[in-house]
Fold this protein.
Amino acid sequence: MICGVDEAGRGPLAGPVVAAAVILDIERPIAGLADSKKLSARTRQRLAAAIRERAIAWAVAEASVEEIDHLNILRATMLAMKRAIEALPLRPTQVLVDGNRCPDIDLPARAIIGGDASEAAISAASILAKTCRDAGMLHLHIDYPQYGFDRHMGYGTAVHLDALRRHGPAPCHRRSFAPVRQLLK
């Protein structure tokens, strides 16, 4: 059983990094799987529901803002991926990871640059990670509407940077990221 793994949220200035692990059922293929960044929000939601329904197994995990600030974003991403793989109810025989590094796991694993566009299981993981992270950012928007998380999902857009300058960082901001760190000086 091949497990695809991907993350969402390495670049934003706020919120956790989220990873997903998916084992697809080859008997129940899902049409339209692709890199989540290339899909509309509506299409991602539709595909995420299909993945949850048809996959043999799936899991989503995260590394918190505090873990990102303590470990750095790369190590926190690997931690979120490891947590997602370990949360699967079944043990995969091989793990395919989007990118150029694999988390420290005791399973055969291979990193594939651009894997979210070429491997269906990684595409599925990409979609689950992105939809779960976006949902979390919408919840943060309820607590911190002044930052506009519902529009930029925590990325360093001009609107977000302006809000950071006006309101200062919230607890959900990554203090180790330069634009936030500079405001704290």
User: Anything to note?
Assistant: The chain has a mean pLDDT of 96. The first strand starts at residue 2 and ends at 8. Helices lie at 41-54, 65-71, 73-87, 115-118, 120-143, 149-152, 158-167, 178-184. The two ends are 49 Å apart (CA to CA).
